[in-house]
Amino acid sequence: MERFYNKDCDVNNLSPLTLAFMGDTVFDLFVRERLICQANRPVNKLHNLASKTVNAASQAKAVKKIMDLLTEEEQAVFRRGRNCHTNHKAKNASEGDYHYATGFEALFGYLYLKGSIERLRELFDIIIEEENNNE
After folding, report:
1. Burial class (CB in 10 A: 0-12, 13-18, 19+), 121
2. What DSSP letter does each residue of 48-85 carry, written as one string?
3. In a domain, 58, yes or no
4. Which residue, 35, 65, 87, 107, is the most exposed by fewest CB within 10 angstroms?
């Protein structure tokens, strides 16, 4: 198991929104690290580039790219996140994209808290594969 804090965490008893809270940060960290390792850029440029990927529409698109590759367990976590009721309205995104993005973030949070860093890397590489081919 590999995590930053690395203390026991009963990931199976966490709510989908708690998992999404973690997953939002995990995905953001992947995106930011990738951008920083590509080139030294001004911070405002980094922020603008990250914002193009870390948003509900892009995350909804990303989860559709990996859906067929997810295990049954991973699909179940995604569905729990997608189907949960939030008291938050999507801003700059359709309601459908917002729910898909919440499921996507729940999946990333779940995998991170389980310590499945290698699986996260694998899924992230698939998500950004198109962009890598254009670089």
Report:
1. exposed
2. HHHHHHSSHHHHHHHHHHHGGGS-HHHHHHHHHHHHS-
3. yes
4. 87
Whole-number Å distance between alpha carbons of 77 and 119: 14
Question: Residue 135 and residue 57: Cα distance in Å, rounded?
Answer: 22
The residue among 107, 110, 10 whose CA lies nearest residue 127 is: 107
User: Is pLDDT at 130 greater than 70 in this prediction?
Assistant: no
Looking at the structure of the chain, the number of domains it has is 1
* Radius of gyration of the chain measured on its C-alpha atoms: 15
Packing angle of the helix pair 16-38, 43-53 (nearest 10 deg): 130
Q: Which of 24, 28, 97, 125 is catalytic?
A: 24
pLDDT in tens, 54-111: 999 999 999 999 999 999 999 999 999 999 877 776 677 788 899 999 999 999 999 9
Can you give the CATH number for the domain in which 119 is found? 1.10.1520.10
Q: Is the pTM for the entire model greater than 0.85?
A: yes
pLDDT at position 122 is 97
Q: Check: CB of residue 59 under 8 Å from CB of residue 104.
A: yes
